[in-house]
Amino acid sequence: MHKKKLKHTVNKAKEQSTMKKKNQNGKSKSIHDILPLDLIHIILLRVPIRHLARLRCVSKLWCSVVSDPDFAELHFHHSPAATNACFFMKNDTMADLVYLDDNDASQKEVCPPFQKKLPSNFSVAGSCRGFILFHRDPHFLVVWKPLTGSSKRISYSHIVHRSQHHGRRIPYGVYFHGFGYDASQDDYLLLVAWSDWKGQYHLDCFSLRTNSWINLDVAVPKLFFYYWHNGGLFFNGAVHWVPSVLMDYRDGIVIFDLKEMTFSTISAPEQLSRSCPSLALLGGCLTLSSPNNDFRNTDIWVMKENKVHSSWTLYRIPCKDFRPLCLSSNRDIIGSGYTSCGKTGYFIYNVRGDLLKHFKNLRCQLPSREPNIVYTVSLLPLPSDIKVKNNKKKMKKEIGHHIF
């Protein structure tokens, strides 16, 4: 699949390069005459995403390659230099992106696409493939791409009306959100699970590809509405949720498969502390973390084989409340938290629990407050963006045919 995409994007670029050469006979050689286009393509796939924007200015050909949706897909999956950032809201209008790197972490203040009228009442509800999902009272969802600033607002006022709750919104504790990607349909899906005033449970899904809501006829687990975190974690084609208080380890994680449109559960480790567990992805593995009962350490449980209960593996970090965010290039654990000694911020620990680094110069959201979201920077467009671009190309071709 990815090899076909590579060949397709290279062929498109070759066509443009050939046309350019025909119009530039007699001129000095360019880099495209010296390096094969296939090699240029492979080199660009290895460039960190924060530098690719500059490389678009090298030539029209390079701009075409980097802007191609197929290249964006390949870069997201195969680039050895993935850029992860921790995202959290500072106040009602501003947020911080903390770029997590082994040696040179940096911080950038960003302005999400909110109206300046206060209070905005926005909360972070998830991230997926370079996009961040926000919820805003009383009944709005916003999908935002920090790299470009593009956003899309979606209302679910019709769900509020159907729920028949009093007021303009569904009460807290009886609705939850999820955000993920269905590769089989090349579609981003927004989930709203909710309970009506009679206590019946429902699940609605918004498709960004069709720009429409779907009322899914699925059995929503009742346990889903007891002490669960609002936003879910997207992993392996499914959205995962974990409770804020673990009542029964056998139903520790609730999963919704975006292709099959079905719910299932994964058992948490029996030894996991029942207080404030959180979900993360470490090295492509589902991870549960929770403060240890001794109030000095944090237990990090990594599921080495997906959905295999016996593969849960424990790592103990000597930090009072530590939230793992991602792995470094050396496979050490990068996370945020605070220690029993009063230190707060971002830390790097190895799997033996040795502190390797403390980034003292970075602002940090304490784990007990609104959760930090790990955002993987990507060039990927939303399906609606692709549709708009394709329509523009089609119009240009039609205009060209009429002129000539």
SSE inventory with pairings:
Layout: H1 2-22, H2 31-34, H3 37-45, H4 49-55, H5 60-67, H6 69-78, E1 84-89, E2 95-99, E3 106-110, E4 122-128, E5 131-136, E6 140-144, E7 151-155, H7 157-163, E8 175-182, E9 187-195, E10 201-207, E11 212-216, E12 233-235, E13 238-241, E14 253-257, E15 262-266, E16 278-282, E17 285-291, E18 298-303, E19 312-317, E20 321-327, E21 333-338, E22 344-349, E23 355-359, E24 373-376, H8 383-403
Helix pairs in contact: 1-5, 1-6
Could you characterize the architecture of this molecule?
The protein is an alpha+beta fold. 22% of the residues lie in helices and 34% in strands. It has 8 helices and 24 strands. It has helices at 2-22, 31-34, 37-45, 49-55, 60-67, 69-78, 157-163, 383-403, and strands at residues 84-89, 95-99, 106-110, 122-128, 131-136, 140-144, 151-155, 175-182, 187-195, 201-207, 212-216, 233-235, 238-241, 253-257, 262-266, 278-282, 285-291, 298-303, 312-317, 321-327, 333-338, 344-349, 355-359, 373-376. The strands form 6 sheets. The protein has a 4-stranded antiparallel β-sheet with strand order 3-2-1-24, with no helix packed on it. Strands 4-5-6-7 form a 4-stranded antiparallel β-sheet, with no helix packed on it. Strands 8-9-10-11 form a 4-stranded antiparallel β-sheet, with no helix packed on it. α1 runs antiparallel to α5 and α1 packs across α6 (69-78). The chain is globular, with a radius of gyration of 23 Å. Residues 17-24 and 388-404 have low confidence and may be disordered.
